[in-house]
Specification:
The chain is α/β, with parallel strands linked by helices. It has a single domain, classed as 3-Layer(aba) Sandwich (Pyruvate Kinase, Chain: A, domain 1), CATH 3.40.1380. Helix content is about 60%, strand content about 10%. Helix 1 runs antiparallel to helix 5 (about 205-284), helix 2 crosses helix 3 and helix 4 packs across helix 5 (about 205-284). The chain is elongated, with a radius of gyration of 29 Å.
Length: about 280
């Protein structure tokens, strides 16, 4: 049985952990609020550019647009993995890495682009290096997205890769996130217009130049939105995880306090019995 000093030491350790997890929960809640504001502001633009491109490509056969064509001469793919730079966020990074492992079982011939350090560290253990790497934190800028987007576009247009997929966690609520695997190239949309629009458009510059620029913009916007969704999901998961850790630490403190009281009472009872026994021995 543990001594009273050992139990009190464990209580102090649990109290220190509880203070840390409570502080981390508050920090995650503040960051989550900012991340929510950013993703809510980004979604309308992202949705609108999809709507515009979807309407325009319904009027064309896609032969003059490299990002719409399928590359059938190669099996090599590219995957953009969006995870977190830090841990202590439940199964957030594990779920992303598991999805990549499933994809690698189907096709090992792929380039891996990482936004976020944790998945890269895990997959490196299996011998999977990084084509490009960016930290996924508040300092990530549009230029970082531009760098990755240019690289995958060049590889796709030259026929080096057949498909580009992005894997990230979509933010739905503080308690719910969804791991998403989305095809980025060739550009496809889930909801295509089956009939062409009756509206006539005047293009400036020319239709081919304009639509190619819009497709490139779509790639970058989708990638940037995925990063924002991932950051909001990360903070949401971390907030919930730290709340659970704080509650668990509280339960541990209560159990250890009860154990400490029992240990102290047992020690007092033992001392009383020794005193009574000594007194009886003197009388006898």
């Amino acid at each position: 049985m543990a001594t009273l000093r050992e139990v009190r030491k464990r209580i102090r350790s649990a109290q220190n952990i509880q203070q840390i997890t409570k502080a981390m929960k508050m920090v995650a809640a503040a960051k989550l609020r900012k991340a929510q504001d950013r993703i809510i502001a980004a979604r309308p633009y992202s949705d609108k550019i999809i709507e515009v491109i979807n309407e325009l490509i319904a009027r064309t056969d896609g032969e003059h647009y490299p990002l719409l064509k399928k590359n059938l001469n190669t099996e090599k793919e590219a995957v953009i993995v969006v995870s977190a730079d830090k841990g202590l966020c439940g199964s957030f990074n594990t779920n992303i890495s598991k999805e990549i492992m499933y994809m690698l079982k189907e096709n090992t011939n792929m380039y891996l682009y990482y936004i976020g350090k944790k998945s890269m560290d895990l997959l490196r253990r299996f011998g999977k290096g990084a084509e490009k790497f960016k930290f996924n934190d508040k300092n990530i800028e549009w230029e970082d997205i531009e760098d990755i987007a240019k690289s995958i576009e060049e590889k796709y247009e030259t026929g080096e890769i057949s498909k580009v997929t992005i894997v990230y966690s979509m933010f739905q609520s503080n308690l719910q996130q969804k791991t998403v695997k989305r095809q980025l190239l060739p550009v496809i949309f889930e909801e295509k217009s089956e009939k062409k629009s009756d509206r006539d458009f005047i293009y400036e510059p020319e239709e081919e130049v304009l639509l190619n620029n819009l497709l490139s913009r779509y790639i970058r916007t989708t990638l940037y939105r995925a990063v924002l969704e991932s950051q909001a999901s990360e903070h949401g998961v971390r907030m919930v995880s730290m709340e659970m850790a704080t509650n668990n630490a509280g339960e541990m403190i209560r159990d250890l306090t009860l154990l400490a009281n029992k240990t102290r009472q047992a020690a007092i009872t033992k001392e009383i019995l020794e005193i009574v026994g000594g007194a009886e021995a003197i009388k006898g």
